[in-house]
Design goal:
Order of helices and strands: EEEHHHHEEEHEEH
Strand content: 15-25%
Largest sheet: 8 strands, mixed
Radius of gyration: 18 Å
Number of strands: 8
Distance between the termini: 12 Å
Length: 219
C-alpha cells in the first residue's frame, strides 16, 4: 500500500495509528495490479511515479473546478487548459443528462463494515437516484468496487439504494465523456476489506517514537 488514508467521523484525515475509518481506495490497494506493475517496469519507477503524481494533481484540479461549478462558487484560475477542457466535458454531460443535484463531495461512512469515502456527486437523473464518481483516467476494475462500497455506506446512512456510475472525462472520445454504470456486488469489496483487516492486524500501524507531527504518508 503506497498511501494510507484514514478519516475520523467528521471526514478529517487522521494518522494511520489513530482511531478512524480507512478509505475505500486504501482498502482496494491490497489487490495485486499486474497491469500497473508491468507499466512501471516498462517505463521505469521514477518516470512512472512522476506521471502518476501529475495525473493525481490534474484529477484533483478537475474535481475542484467541477465542485465549484456545482456549488456556484468562483472558478479557480491558474490550471492548465486540459483541466478546463475536462471540466467543460462535465458541462456537456450535465446539459444532456440534466441531473438534479442532491449533494456534491458527500462524505460517506459505513459504521457496519468500518470504512469511509467521498462521493463526488449524489443526484437524480430521470427520477432515479445516482452516486457518481468523476474519473480523469482510464477505466479500472477497482472503480465498480469503489462504487459498491459507496452504495453500501449511503444505504446505511439514508436507507436509500442508489444506482452507481463513473463519469469518465477524457479527450479520447468525441463527446469528451463516457458515463458507465456499475453494478458490482458489495461482497467483493468486503472480501478485499477482510484481507486488508488481516494485514493491518498482523502489521498494525504504530506511532514512531520520534514522530514530531509531520506527515509521514502520502495524502
Amino acid at each position: 500500500m503506497d498511501s494510507i488514508h484514514k478519516y475520523n467521523k467528521k471526514g478529517e484525515l487522521v494518522k494511520p495509528w489513530e482511531e478512524g475509518y480507512y478509505s475505500v481506495t486504501t482498502i482496494l490497494d491490497v489487490r495485486h495490479k499486474p497491469d500497473l506493475w508491468a507499466w512501471k517496469l516498462r517505463v521505469g519507477e521514477e518516470v512512472a511515479n512522476d506521471k502518476m503524481l501529475d495525473s493525481q494533481e490534474r484529477g484533483k484540479a478537475v474535481h475542484q473546478v467541477i465542485n465549484e461549478m456545482l456549488t456556484n462558487t468562483e472558478i479557480a484560475e491558474g490550471f492548465d487548459d486540459y483541466v478546463y477542457q475536462l471540466a467543460n466535458a462535465f458541462i456537456l454531460w450535465q446539459a444532456l443528462k440534466k441531473p438534479i443535484n442532491i449533494q456534491s463531495e458527500l462524505y460517506l461512512v459505513s459504521e457496519r463494515h468500518g470504512f469511509a469515502g467521498t462521493a463526488d456527486l449524489v443526484c437524480t437523473i430521470d427520477g432515479s437516484l445516482w452516486i457518481i464518481d468523476f474519473k480523469t483516467g482510464s477505466k479500472n476494475i477497482d472503480h465498480g468496487l469503489q462504487l459498491a462500497a459507496y452504495r453500501q455506506a449511503y444505504k446505511e446512512m439514508t436507507d436509500k439504494v442508489a444506482k452507481t456510475a463513473c463519469l469518465y472525462l477524457t479527450d479520447k472520445t468525441k463527446k469528451g465523456w463516457q458515463f458507465v454504470e456499475y453494478k458490482e456486488p458489495v461482497n467483493v469489496f468486503l472480501a478485499h476489506k477482510k484481507i486488508f483487516d488481516w494485514i493491518i492486524k498482523k502489521n498494525p500501524h504504530k506511532e514512531p517514537l520520534d514522530y514530531k507531527g509531520g506527515i509521514i504518508y502520502a495524502e
